[in-house]
Amino acid sequence: MEMVLVAPPAPGRLEDLKRRFFATPLQAVVSLACLTIMVFLVWKLLNWAVFSAVFTTSGGPEACQAAAGACWSVIAARWRIIFFGLYPYEEQWRSALACVAVVVMTVLSCIPAFWTGRRIALVWGAGTGLFYVLMKGGVLGLAHVGEEAWGGLALTLFIFVTTCLIGFPLAICLALLRRSELPWISRTTGLIIDGVRSLPLISILFTFAVVLPFALPQWLQGDKLYRVILGSALFFSAYQAEIVRGGMQGVATGQEEAAMALGMRYWQRISRILLPQAMRNAMPATINQFVISFKETSLVVIVGFFEILASGNAAYGTGEWRFAYVEVYAFIAFIYFIFVFSLSRYGAFLERRMSVSER
Amino acid sequence: MVSLLRNQKVHNALLQVLYVGSIAAMVLAGIVIARRNLADQGITSGFDFLFKSTGWDVNFSLLPATANDPYWWYFLIGIINTLFLGSVGLILATIVGTIVGLARTSSNDLARLLGRTYVDIFRNIPLILQVFFWYAIITHLPTPRSAHEAWGFLLTSRGLYIPFPNVGSAAFAAATVAVIAAIVLPAWLGRTSRLAQPIGQRHTIQFAAAAAALACSAIILALGRLPDTPLLDFPALQGLNLRGGLRIPPEFATLAIAIAIYGGSYIAEIVRGGFKSVGTGQVEAALSLGLSPWRVFTLVRLPLALRAMLPILANQYVWLMKATTMGIAVGLTDFFMIVALTINHSGQTLEAIGILMAGFLAINLSLAAVFNRINKAIALKGNQLRG
């Protein structure tokens, strides 16, 4: 007997739509409600941000205020203050170049070829050094610009990068100290880590900016900017230390025992056996911590720094652009979004990549 | 001597003494220098200042506050403000997060897309930027004279006005306690050790307890009602100002909204993770037993997801409590802002910082303790949980 196999008829477009969105009455209601919300929001947003928006500065603030939509001319008129803060006008190209250097450095350190301790240290050292020289000047014929004039995006990036640069090695030290076999060392370190973690970041920044000068001898006080960076690095390292420790716990004990049996010394065991594997385990959580600390750099506005959020406040806060606050905040939010979103997407990509390699 | 140093035990002991000693020395040196510097400015250290009157005002307080009140009273006000703002933000964020999280786990592509867009936008913008944004929006609302009005709610640049029952404050507090009891009591009774009746009876008892507590709160409200006034006090324009109703100051509304929206996006991810961790086998088993989708959700997916979520949720709640310190950005007198103002006005720097640390430690530890108890109470018993 011959069997004739007939494929079931391929579902048509309409059929497919019906199956996906209108399978049951409840599904249909949910789909329609979501569709309405989406169409409404997208239309409102497009109408505000594009169709009835003003893009040129030609009409001045008055023409802009009269428009029904967004007034993007405020960005066209004030973008320099948002990006560069109070940095001297003629030298602002240096600030822009410094930002590019940091972005290039971040992108480079996302490439697996640079994931050895020495290379990553080299990239970050070179990037930060270049940033510092460009911003501060005083050498190579560049005019000297003091830290108090730094602002805008460049200051945000500087605080972020230095926080990570100081915080990361500190985090590894704290994690190693916490898993020490000597009870008093691990307990004291645990106390420090948990103490810092239980405090809000703002209170730590405030303490380092305002209170610390009382408790330090004159010669140790330094600039307020560096004290705040130190506070932020301490906060970062307390969280990162727990992430690194988690990564270390994921390394099988046999690995360290084998290294010991081979006669490796403590530092060899840590730097060649334990840390490479631990950092690999801790990678997704580390990226997440970088994302969080990038967002948290914006808190320095509270202790009086002119980073991108504060310069945004200044961009609309004075004079004729007072009405355009939504546009300025939307613009700054967009800048943060680009940085944070791409970092977190990268983190998700890494996580997928690692889960594949472990299979 | 050298052989003594080579001895492992001596070596270890020395190392520990050196480490702990140097940290202690640094802290002590800092305190000594700070005391000397402060003494040079004529500030005597000690906690006597707690009983002096402050001489400045707070702009938001649940308790009566005047400039004549002592510092310790202000610190108490600060802690209560922080806890109140934190709880309001926490509850709102949980509601937002649950809705968005459920949308993200829904089988409907459109709902998932909406949920994902929400999370991607609000999680990737710093909280303080969102606080500034909402504060700018709220303070640019129209004046009371041309306020937006809807269902008795008024939106003005001076704050949000909502209808409020006409009752005394003591009666209102008692009624709130009764409502909380209506939520907590059934959960407490529901634990098998307390009521060993069959499930059906247990539900009846739980239901009765909740109903009784709610009835209690209604009676308290009715008794505590101010004489000769309508049940609800609606805000209304009188002359140039608004009368009646409850005014939520712009600062408080800003922070509550910002924490709800930002925290909601984080909680949504936790909710999604919780539901994802429920094994498909268990859901399939429930479906094949003939349970309706709704019962599968309430009896199988939700209880299991809740247990997976709770530890992470506890961390998030602690984080949200700490986020109330953003109050200083818009001038809400939360605990941290009171400490900062105290340092500005009285100069008692070290003491105030100590109080700040102790306060947050106490808040964090008690939150963690509460969640640990809940966690232990609802943990699944037995050793064959998977499979």
TrEMBL record, chain A:
Topology with respect to the bilayer: Multi-pass membrane protein
Transmembrane segments: 21-43, 93-115, 122-143, 149-177, 198-219, 225-241, 297-316, 328-349
A single GO molecular function term of this UniProt record: transmembrane transporter activity
Compartments, record wording: Cell inner membrane; Cell membrane
Protein's UniProt keywords contain Iron-sulfur: no
CDD domains per UniProt: TM_PBP2
Main location: membrane
Keywords on record: Cell membrane, Membrane, Transmembrane, Transmembrane helix, Transport
GO biological process: amino acid transport
Protein's UniProt keywords contain Transcription regulation: no
Matching SUPFAM superfamilies: MetI-like
InterPro entries membership: AA_ABC_transptr_permease_3TM (IPR010065), ArtM/GltK/GlnP/TcyL/YhdX-like (IPR043429), MetI-like (IPR000515), MetI-like_sf (IPR035906)
Domain ABC transmembrane type-1, chain residue ranges per copy: 153-344
One GO CC annotation: ATP-binding cassette (ABC) transporter complex
NCBIfam families on file: HEQRo_perm_3TM (TIGR01726)
Protein family according to the UniProt entry: Belongs to the binding-protein-dependent transport system permease family. HisMQ subfamily.
UniProt-recorded name of the protein: General L-amino acid transport system permease protein
Originating species: Rhizobium loti
Automatic annotation (TrEMBL), chain B:
One annotated GO molecular function: transmembrane transporter activity
Alphabetic keyword roster: Amino-acid transport, Cell membrane, Membrane, Transmembrane, Transmembrane helix, Transport
Regions crossing the membrane: 12-34, 71-100, 121-141, 161-185, 205-226, 246-268, 317-340, 352-371
InterPro entries: AA_ABC_transptr_permease_3TM (IPR010065), ArtM/GltK/GlnP/TcyL/YhdX-like (IPR043429), MetI-like (IPR000515), MetI-like_sf (IPR035906)
Every ABC transmembrane type-1 domain range: 79-371
Cellular component, GO, one term: ATP-binding cassette (ABC) transporter complex
Main location: membrane
GO biological process: amino acid transport
Highest taxon in the source lineage: Bacteria
Location within or outside the cell: Cell inner membrane; Cell membrane
Membrane topology: Multi-pass membrane protein
PANTHER family: AMINO-ACID ABC TRANSPORTER PERMEASE PROTEIN YHDX-RELATED, MEMBRANE COMPONENT OF AMINO ACID ABC TRANSPORTER
Protein family according to the UniProt entry: Belongs to the binding-protein-dependent transport system permease family. HisMQ subfamily.
Protein name: General L-amino acid transport system permease protein
Organism listed in the record: Rhizobium loti
Organism taxonomic ancestry: Bacteria, Pseudomonadati, Pseudomonadota, Alphaproteobacteria, Hyphomicrobiales
